[in-house]
Fold these 3 entries.
Entry 1:
Amino acid sequence: MLRYIVKRIVQMIPILFMISIISFIIIQLPPGSYLNTLIAQMRATGDEVDMEMIEALRIRYSLDKPMHIQYFNWMKGIITRGDFGFSFEWNRPVSHLIWERLGLSVAVSVSAMLFSWIIAFPIAIYSAVRKHTLGDYFFTFVGFLGLSTPNFMLALILMFISSKYFGFTVGGLFSPEYMMAPWSWARFVDMLTHIWIPMIVVGTAGTAGLIRVLRNNLLDELGKPYVVAARSKGISTVRLVFKYPVRLALIPFISTVGWQLPNMVSGEAVTATVLSLPTAGPLMLAALRSQDMYLAGSFLLLLALLTMIGTLISDLLLVLVDPRIRYE
Amino acid sequence: MNPKNILEVRDLVVKFKLSEGIVHAVNGVSYDVPEGKSIGIVGESGCGKTVSSYALNRLLPPYATLSGQILFRQQDGNIIDIAKLKPEGREIRAIRGRDIAMIFQEPMTSLSPVHTICNQISEALILFQGMTKKQARNRTIELLKLVGIPQAERRVDEYPFQFSGGMRQRAMIAMALARNPRVLIADEPTTALDVTLQAQVLSLIQDLQNRFNLSMILITHALGVVAHMVETVNIMYLGRIVETGPTMEIFEEPLHPYTQGLLQSIPKLTGRLGERVSSIPGSVPSAYDIPKGCPFEARCKHRMEICREEMPKPVTVGSEHTVYCHLYTGREAARDAANA
Ligand SMILES: Nc1ncnc2c1ncn2[C@@H]1O[C@H](COP(=O)(O)OP(=O)(O)OP(=O)(O)O)[C@@H](O)[C@H]1O
Ligand code: SF4
Ligand SMILES: [Mg+2]
C-alpha cells in the first residue's frame, strides 16, 4: 500500500511539470501582457502614460526576456523558495494572495461536498429501497427542482431570507471585524457562521445529480444475485443494504470524487462573485482577465495539483472499498 | 399436515406484476418434502423452479404476489405457514437463518465480490449462533474443509474472485451448511459448472445430505442428474407440476407425455454413436398468458379436443404416482394407449 502511494506521488511530478509548461504557455497566448492592461487602465483614468516607467517595469519583471527564461525563473522560485512570483495587479507576492483564498475555497468546497453527501445518501438509499413509492417520487421531484435551480438564484434567495428574517450580515465568509484579522479561534467560529450559505448553494447543485446516480447504482446492485443470497442468510434489510449493495454502489461514485474537488473550487466562481466570498474563483478570473500572469499561472498549477491529489484520494478509497483493484 | 413431512407446499401461486403484464410464474404447485429425505423438481428452463423455491424462503421481489400455503414444521413441532409471514419480518429471517438454506444457481454472482469468504460465511454464525468473530472464523475453516476446499486456513481470507467456479459453489454450499439447516434447497447447483465438476459437487451434496440427515429439494432441468439422488420426483411444466412419483417409477413408467419427452432427451451411454437424442419439439409458451387447459397442449402429440378446454385432474396410479393428463382420466385403458 505504502509503495503504491509513493509510486503514485512520484508519477505526479512529471505530470505537474507538463501542466506547468502548458499553463504558462496558455497564459502567454493572448497578445500583450499585463503592461498593456496597465497602460489601458492609465489611459482610462486619464493619467499620463509614462513610457519610461513602463519600460522599467518590463525589465524589473523580466518581461523583456524570452518566454522559456521567464518560465525557468518562475519554476526555480517555486521549487527553491516556494516563491510563486509576483502579482502585478496586487503588487504583492503571489504566495501572499493565494494560500488563504485557496484554503477557503477548499473549505467551502469540502463542506459543500459533505453537505450534499449527507443529504444525498439517505435519500438515494431510501428511494432505491422503496422504489416507485410516494416518497421516491417526492424526492425525485425535489431533486429535479434542485437540479434546475441555478446556483446564483439560490444564493440570492438565501441571502434575501437570511438578511430579511434573521438579520445576518450576508455575503463574504467573515464579519467585517474579522475580515482582515489574522487567524484565531474567534475568526474560525465567525467563518463557520458564514460558510453555511455557500455550503448550501454550492452543495445543492450537485445533490440532485448525486441522488440520481446513487439511486440508480443502488438499484442495479439490489437486483443482483448476491443480494438475494445475502437475504437468504436471514440478515435484516437495513444491515443487508448497508453491508452489501451500498458499498458496491459507492464504487462508481467514489471514482468521481477526485475530480469533483477541483471542479468545485473553480465552479464556485459564480457563487463566490454573487456572495462576494474571498475565495479563489473570483481572484483567478480577474487574474486571467488582466493577464496577471504569475498569479493566474499559480492558480492553474495549484488547481492541477488539487485534481491530482483528489484523484489519488479517490483511487486510495477505491482500493479500500474494492479488493478486486487491490489484487490487480 | 402429514407427520412424516417437514414441508408441505399447497396450491402455490406466484405472479409478477410488471408494466408489460402479469407473469404467471407458478400456477398452483403442491408437493411434500418428507423429513430427512430428498425430492427433485425437474423441468425445462423458465418453468418456475427457481421462483417456486424462492417462495419457500420468501426471497421474491416486492412486486411478486404469493398465494397458497407453505406449511413448515419447526424444530419445536409447531407448524407455521411461511406464505403468511411478513415479507422481511423476524420470523421469516429466523427461518432463513436456521431452518431453510439455499444453494443458488449462479455461484459466480451469488457471492459479494467485495467481502472475503470468511466474512460471508461467518455472518450467519455470528448472527444466529452467537459465535464470536474468532469462533466463527474457525468454524468457517472447518466448513470449508468439509466441502473440500484445499488449504482452507489460507483461502478463508480470500475473495470470491480468487476462487474458481467449482470452489465458489463449494463455498456457497459451506455458507448454506453454516446455518445448520434442516431443509436444503439446491437450485441447479451444477448447471454453471463444467461436466467433471458437476459429478463432484453432486456427490458432495449427496454425502452431506446423508451425513446431516437433511431434507433436501434438488432442482434441476436434467432428469438424469437427479435419478440416483432423490426418492421422489416432481416434473414441472409452465408453472405446474404435471407428474409426481417415486423416482424409479417415473423412470420406468413415465406417464405424462412431457415426462416421456424429457426421458427420451437424456443421452444414453449405451446409445450408438451419432444417434440423435430426441428432444421435445416446440418451446415453452410465454408465461404472460397461460392456457386454460393442459399447459403442455401446444407441444403434445397426444392432444385431444378436451385438452385445450379443460385442466386435467390428477390421476393417481399406484400409491404415490400421480399424473395430470387427460389421457389417464379413463385410467388403465388410456394408459396403455399412450404407451403404445
Ligand atoms: N424477478 C422476476 N420478474 C419477472 N419475471 C420473473 C422473475 N423471475 C422469474 N420470472 C419469470 O418467471 C418464470 C419462471 O422463472 P424461473 O426463474 O423460476 O425459471 P426456472 O425454472 O428456474 O428456469 P431456469 O432453469 O432457467 O433457472 C419465467 O418465465 C421467468 O421469466
Ligand atoms: S392432457 Fe392432453 S395435451 Fe396435456 S399432456 Fe395429456 S394428452 Fe397431452
Ligand atoms: Mg432457475
Note: Residues 273-277 of chain B have pLDDT under 50 and may be disordered.
Entry 2:
Amino acid sequence: MATNENKNGEGVTRRDFIHVAAGGVGAIAAASVVWPLVDQMNPSADVLALASIEVDLSSIERGGAVKVMWRGTPIYIRHRTEAEIAAAKADDSAVLPDPATDGDRVQKPEWMIMEAVCTHLGCVPVGAEGGYNGDFGGWFCPCHGSHYDTSGRIRKGPAPRNLAIPPYQFVADTTIVIG
Amino acid sequence: MAGNSNFQSNNKVVNWIEERMPIFSLIDGSLGASYPAPKNLNYWWNFGSLAGLALVIQIVTGIVLVMHYTPNTELAFDSVEHIMRDVNYGWLLRYVHANGASMFFIVVYIHIFRGLYFGSYKAPRELLWILGVVILILMMATAFMGYVLPWGQMSFWGAKVITNLFSAVPVVGDSLVQWLWGGFAVDNPTLQRFFSLHYLLPFVIAGVVILHIWALHKHGSNNPLGIDVKSPQDTVGFHPYYTAKDLFGIGVFILVFAYFVFFNPNYLGHADNYIPANPLLTPASIVPEWYFLPFYAILRSITFSISIPFTDIVLIDAKLLGVLAMFGSLAVLIALPWLDRSPVRSSRFRPMYRWFFWILVIDSFILGYVGAQKPEGIMPTLGLIGTAYYFFHFLVLLPFIMPKYEKDTKLPESISNPVIK
Ligand code: HEM
Ligand code: FES
C-alpha cells in the first residue's frame, strides 16, 4: 500500500482525492435525482396555462360587487361609490401597516379589483354582500378578524399586507382581462 | 430484545424456522415471558399498546376505504357519501376511521402526559422519547391530510389556512406555498398529493414505532417509582402478566370507541364538513379537529410583531411569530430531556414538580378551550397567557427555577422494597 502512503507534500493522499471525488459525484447524482421528485409538485403546465380570463363589468351596478374565479383564486370586483372612493383617498395619509395610496391600487377609481384572499391565512374576506364590512367599511375577514378599508388596505388585525391586486387590464371601457 | 430470550420448543417446524430466522425468540424476547417488565406498572402503562392498536385500526380501515374513495375535487365528496350510503358497511368503516383518529390522539396524549409525570423522557430513554415526539408530529400531518380528503367546507378551509402558515417563511414563503399546493390555490393537485401522503405516512409511523419499541426494549419500561430495575425480583415476565393487563385495557378502549362509533359518530367532528367545499365562501368560523385545538390557540395567540425599538423595522412579523410558536411548542418537547435537570424521574418523589405538572395539564386544557372559541373578547388574552405559561414551564421553570428550589428527596431502595426508610 506504499503508494497510498505517499504524500504529495501537502498532506493530501491520492485516496483522499478519490474519496472527495466519489463523494462529489455521488452528491451531484443524488441532487439530480431528487430535483425532479421535488419539482413535480410545482404548478404543472396546464395549471399555469389557465392563466387569464375576461370579465364583462357592465352588469355590476355602483355599490355592487362580484366574485370571479381566476386560477382557483376568488377575485373581488367592486364598483365603488363616490363616498367609498373619497374615504379611500382620505385615508392615504392615515397610518397604514402596509403603506399604499388608493391611486396605486386602482386603474379606474370606480373599479376596485383585487384578490379575495386574506393575507393572513387565506380566508375570503366578506364585503359588499351587505352585513358587517369591518371597522373601515371595506372588507372584514371573519377567520381571525382582519379589517380592510375600501381600498382593500389592511387596517387592523393579524393580516400583514394589503389584499393583493392581480394583473389585469381594460380591453374595453367595461371589459377587463385578468392575468 | 431477542438476546434475552431462552426460547425453546418441541415443535419441529418451529425449530426449523427458528434455526434459520430467529423470529420466535424475537417475539418471545419482546412480548413473551422472557421480556422482563417492572412488576409495579400501573394502568397509565396501558396506553402504549392502545396506541399501537389504534394505528393498526387506522391502517386496516383506511386501506378498505381507499377501495371506494376517489381523490378528485369533483368526486371526493360524493365518493365519501357513496361510502356512507351505498357501500356495504361503508358507514361503519368510515365512522371507525374518522373516530379512530380521535381515539388515537386521546390515547397518545395520555401516553405522553404519562411520560411527563413519571419522567420517562430522562436518561437513558431520551431517544425513545424523541422518537415518540416524531410519531406525534407524523400523526398530526397524517390526520390533517386525512381530514382534507372528504373535501367538505372544513376540509378545504382547514387545508387553506394550514398550508398558508408556510407563507410566513421569509423570502421563499409564497413559492413554498405554491409548491405545496401545486397551483395558485388549494385545488385538485393539492387533494391528490394529500391523498398520496395520507396513504404513505401511517406506514412511516409504523416504521418509527418499530424504532420506538427497539429503543424501549434496550432499557425496558420506566415505572411509577421511576427507579431502575435492580434485580429479577423487581420484574415479572411480560407474558402473561402484561399481555393480560393490556388485553383488559383494550377491552375498555373498544367500549369507549364503540360508544362514539355507534351512538355519537359525529360528536367529535364538525357539521360544516358535510357541506361540499366552496372556494368562494369561508365558513363563519374555522375550527380544527379537537386534537389540534391547543396548537391552534398557540398559533393565534400571537398578534404582535417584534420590531427594533423606536423604529418601524419589523424583525419578525406576527404571522411568522405565531407559526414559530406553534412549531416551537413541539420543539420544546424534543428538548425536554435536557431542559429538566432533575435526576429524579417520578413525580412521586418530586412534590414541587407534581404541582407544575398539573398546572401544565390545566394550561393545555385552557389552550384547547381557547382554540375552539372565536378570537374575541377575553379569548386572545387568555390564549396569550396560556401560551406564555406553556413556554415558561419548559424554558424557564424546569431548567432555571426548579433546580434552585427543589429539595433532594430520598428514593426507595428498589421496586420490591419501595418503603423509604
Ligand atoms: C395514522 C393513521 C391515520 C390517521 C390518524 C388518519 C386520519 C384520518 C382522518 C382524520 C380522516 C378524515 C375522516 C373524515 O372526517 O371523514 C381520514 C380520512 C381518510 N383516510 Fe385516514 N388516517 C390514517 C391512516 C390511513 C391509511 C393508512 C389510509 C389508507 C391506506 C387512510 C385512508 C383514508 C381515506 C381514503 C380517507 C377518506 C375517507 C373518509 O373521509 O373517511 N387513512 N383519515
Ligand atoms: S385568514 Fe383572514 S384574518 Fe386570518
Note: Chain B touches chain A through 33 residues (CB under 8 Å).
Entry 3:
Amino acid sequence: MHELAVAQALVEQVESVIDQHAASAASRIRVRIGPLAGVVPDLLASAFPLAAAGSRMERATLDLVDAPIKVRCQACGSETEAAMNRLVCGACGDWHTQVISGDELLLESVELETAPSLTPES
Amino acid sequence: MCDTCGCNLTPGNRHLAFKPVAKGATAVSVLKGLLAKNDDQAAHNREHFDRRGILAINLMSSPGSGKTALLEATLTALKDEFTCAVIEGDLETENDAERIRAKGVQAHQIVTGTACHLDAHLVHDALHHMTLDGVDLLFIENVGNLVCPASFDLGQHLNVTLLSVTEGDDKPAKYPVMFRAADAMLLTKTDLLAVLDDFDPDKAEAHLRDLANPAPVLRLSARKGAGMDAWVTWLREQLAAQRARVAIGQSRRPAIQADGQRYHRITA
Ligand SMILES: Nc1nc2c(ncn2[C@@H]2O[C@H](COP(=O)(O)OP(=O)(O)OP(=O)(O)O)[C@@H](O)[C@H]2O)c(=O)[nH]1
Ligand SMILES: [Mg+2]
Ligand SMILES: [Zn+2]
Ligand SMILES: [Zn+2]
Ligand SMILES: [Zn+2]
Ligand SMILES: [Zn+2]
C-alpha cells in the first residue's frame, strides 16, 4: 500500500505550491498517472482524503488523468500503443522500444483559491 | 524556472500558468513528478556514493526469493577482493543484517514497520549509521515485495531483480513495473529446476524482453554455487564502469528512471 506514501508526497507538493503562490487553499488537483507508474489510481484516490485531512486541500477535487501506454520503436521508428506487459512495437514486433507515454506520475496542475485582487508571483 | 515549488514558469508559459479559472481562483501548472522529493533525496544519496567511488545496487524480489542467501554467497566470493557493505530492509527483525554480519561484513538493518518498501530518506538515515569510507560495493536489500519498491529511487546505480524458479516463469508478465526496472534479472535457486517441471528459464527471459528490457539474465544457485562466477564477473564489470564514470564526473541512474526524463513529451 505505497499509495498512501504517494498521497502524502502529493499533499506535500501541493502545500508548497499553495505557499509559493500565497494562496489560501487548493480547490482542484490534477495528476497524470500512467499504468506503468506502479500506482493504482483507485487506491491513490482513496488514500488522498486520509493524507489531505486537516490540510488546505482537504476539500479539493482530485482529478486523475490516465496516460495511455505508447512506445517508440528503435528498429522501425513507429509509435504505437502497447499493453502493460507487452511493450513491443505494434508495427514490426521488435522489442527494442522506448516507452514515450504511460509511466508518468505527474502533478500537472493545481487550482488555487486566492484573494480576488492578488496578482500572481513566482 | 522555480525548482523548489515546481511551478516551472518561464516568460513564455506564464500566461498559461495563470489563466484565471473563476473569481478568486488561479490555475497553476506544475508538471512535476509526484515523488520529486524522494528523487531529490535519492540524487543526494547518489552523490554520497559517487564521491567515494562506491557502486550501489538495489536488490528486489518477492519475499524469500533468496536475496540474503545470494548476498551471503556473494560476500564470501568477494571477500579478498572488495570491501562490501549492506543495508537490509525488512518489515520486522534484524535477522538478515545478523546473517550478513556473521560474514564479517558491515550491515545496517532498516526495520520499516508497516512500510512495504524502502525510500531514499530511509536509506539516507541508514548511511549515517555506516562507515562508507573504503567501501567499494554497497548492496541494498529491499523489502521482499514485487510491487512498490520499483517506484522509489534510493540513489542506487543499478537495480537487480531476483526471480526464484519456484515462483513461476511468468512473473515478469504479472509484475511488469518491477521487471521493467531491472538492470539485471537473476533466476535463483536453479538447483531446484531438476524437481520443478514447469519453470522454463527461456520463457522467463522472453517475458522480460516483452517489457522491452535488454537486461542480462543470469541463472544461479546461491546454495550450490552454480552460475555464481558469471554474477561475480558482472559485478566486477559494473564496479569498473562506475569507477570510470566517477573519474570523468558522471553518474548513472537505474536505466528506467533516466529514460523517463529523456523520452517524455508532456502534453496538456
Ligand atoms: N534450494 C535453494 N534454496 C535457496 C537458495 N537460495 C535461498 N534459498 C532458500 O530460500 C529461503 C529464503 O531465502 P532468503 O535468502 O532468506 O530469501 P530473501 O529473499 O532474503 O527473503 P526476505 O528477505 O524475507 O524477502 C531460505 O530457506 C533459503 O535457504 C538456493 O539457491 N537454492
Ligand atoms: Mg532477506
Ligand atoms: Zn517497429
Ligand atoms: Zn514558483
Ligand atoms: Zn547526506
Ligand atoms: Zn510499499
Note: Chain B has two domains: 1-32, 37-254.
